[in-house]
Amino acid sequence: MAKIFLSMMLVLLLLVLAAFTLVHVYQDEIVAMFVQQANRYVKTPVKAEKISVSLFSTFPHAAVTFENVWIRESYEGSEEALATAGHIHCSFSLLDLLRKKYRIREIQLQDAEVFLRVKANGEVNYTIIEQPDDEPANPEQSLRFDLNSIKLENVRLHYADKQNEQHYKLLAKYLRAGLGIDGPLYSIELKGNLHTDSLLVGNDAYLRNQPVELSSRFTFNNTSGDLHFAPTNLLVQDSDFWLEGTVGTSGTTRLDLTMEAKKADFQTVEAILPLAFTSSVRNYRSKGDIWFKGTVKGLASSKEIPEIAVDFKTDDASFYHPDYKQALEKIELRGSFSNGSKRSAASSVLRVDRLQASLNGRPVRGSFTLSNFDDYYLSFRTDSELDANSLLRFYPIEGVSNAGGLLKVNMEFKGRLQDLKQSSTLQRIQAGGEVVLRELKFQRQGAPYPFTGLNGSLIFRNQDLALSNLSGNAGSSHFVLNGLFKNIFAYLLLENQPIAIEADLQSDFLNLDELLADAKATESKSLKASAALPEGEKYYAFDIRPDLNLYFNCQVKRLHFDRFRAKDLAGELVVEKGVAYVKGARLSAAGGKMQLNGHIDARRAKDVIVTAKARFDGINADSVFYVFHNFSQNFLADRHLKGKISANVSTSMEFDKKLRFRYEKLIVDSDMLVTNGQLKGFEPMQALSAFINEKRLADISFSNISSKVSVRNETIYLPATTIESDITTVTIAGTHTFNQEIDYSVKVPLKAVLTGKKEQMPPSAVRPEAGAPHLFVRIYGTTDDYKIGYDTYAVKEKIVTDIKKEKEELKEVFKNKGRKTEDIVTPDEEEFFDW
After folding, report:
1. What are the angstrom distances between the C-alpha of 760 and each of 756, 757, 825, 831?
2. What is the pTM of this model?
3. C-alpha–C-alpha distance, residues 266 and 747, integer Å
4. Contact 367, 352 (CB under 8 A)
5. Helices and strands (H and E) in the chain: how many
6. pLDDT of residue 382
7. Which residues pair with 273 in a beta bridge?
8. Residue 637 to residue 680: CA distance in whole angstroms
9. Which residue, among 117, 13, 29, has the nearest Cα to 73 in the 3D structure?
10. Which residues neighbour 744 within 8 Å (Cβ) at sequence distance 6 or greater?
């Protein structure tokens, strides 16, 4: 056996040596012959750096090898390349060396790039081979192409067809084509691996960046131009696709094809279809098989579209996003697609007759039809029960998080999608149904509070939405709404569209600190009242959309805003063109009752203007000061005051859009009555005890005070106001600026002045009034540094006023009884002392 093996090896070695010898001996002859014959068949220039006869590259066959080849395309006058290749091997049998009749059986292209182009007029750039006119094909000639195999290794193909608007880019990693020729009939068998960059048809890219395993048998009739596919298998990812039928290439392309996917998944279908069809769900994946079968029949060109019909279904599949822990499961789907009798986008219809699935154990049911792909018309119906948290995990909605609760959706919709884009056509949309909320909750991005405990019904009627017992919480605020939202779709879908809301609002509690909060500011800081904040702090944000029209009939049990606490609030809130009107509001607050009418004007870009008229009955004086943070001063604060205030107030005030108060814009006119009052620990009043004969000025009680207080130009104006207390009677008048500059005039009966002080005071500080002398005292300066002195100026003013009055009286006396004279006392200059 060893001898036989050695003998065989020796014979094989001798044959190889003989083959190499023959190749070496006939190399020049073979190359010359090949170049001569190639020049007869190839009508465009071909350049190669080196041409040789090799035994290694295609062993056990010999081959003529071209290295670094450049082939020009066939367009007249063009210098562009049809192809470039690292190597082209044209192989033939070793026996051909002995017969000296070379038959090229196989061509191999390695490391090549091919550019196939079709102009708009149909002219192609790859007609480079032709039979010589002066010599018919001769089977006995020395060199002849008798191909039965073509191999492509690492060959990149570019195909650009301007006539049919098609552009293909793909890489043949390894592809072998078996070739059989029987007259005009070419039989081809393809096997190998491709990688598609994209197959661009029009503006739509198919098979983007996909590996494809190909196994195909087809025939091409060179006479008729018909290309017939026997069952052809394409394996894309893990999905099997089968293709068979006929493509007519003579003249306008004729198609009669059937394609079937017996085992496919969503990610493969997504990769095959253009992004325009799948962009919103491109990152999703599926489990389970998708089946579809389609036919394409008719002419295909830039002007003609073949008839396309596809049926598809899936059973017990699931659909999910790999980054989210939620899947749509147990999917059963039946549907079809057709481009219709007119074979156009306008007559195309995508129909899903049945869709059933489960989302976290909740049923999802529905059907839809999408027609007229030139002007989409959608009709759908759904009867589903959705878990909000599962829905948001399955398909996240931008700006919404932390969802929970249930939505029971029973909805229908019919209309052109284009009609949703214009207010003039939105009325054509037909929408109806009901969404029932059960303990729904969610958080909106940019909102400092969540929505929780939402229950009730949303009833859709075309463009309007009715709310039926919609209750829930916005942060700590509670609400119950019953009413109608008119023009809701236009408001949500289009810009600058009005919405009209008519509803009854009931609430157990409204927290305006949360509802009006500036979300950005509250991310790191707690809410505070704007009036109490240092300049520049921003905690509130307020604006009114000019397209909002609203009518609320309000019933609120409790309301909080900063330090303000109200209960049993009732009234009307009307919003129109950027202005909110409060009508007939009634509430209880600060131990009393309030009635309010007014409006809030937010039409300016940076301003909020509030105008109001209010009636206060029996509210606590200290509560008023407390609510308004003592009006940003501590001179006269809530700790100093007790009593009940009843007043009629008219006011105008201004804020910026962060609700920061603009004191310089404040205007107030009030007519008030304070009853059962008490002034405790007020320092200026205590200071008067140094010369007033009372020791209880630190705690003064009084029954009634009536006054008309006004505010202008950052100044509080107090007219002459008499305080009849349990100690003495004091009359006070003056001004108090927002810069804490004070100037008060105080009048007290002289009998209350200490005996020692009576002797020291100048006569100019005393003036008789109501049959008794009174002392006039002035308190002026700032709240931190004030002075108390004799107010001789007030006495002068009083004298001048009395003189005018007496002149009038004298005129009457002269008319009736004669002239009566009275001495006039000229007061001395003002005197003061510091405290």
Report:
1. 7, 5, 19, 11
2. 0.69
3. 93
4. yes
5. 11, 42
6. 94
7. none
8. 10
9. 117
10. 684, 718, 732, 733, 734, 735, 736, 778, 779, 780
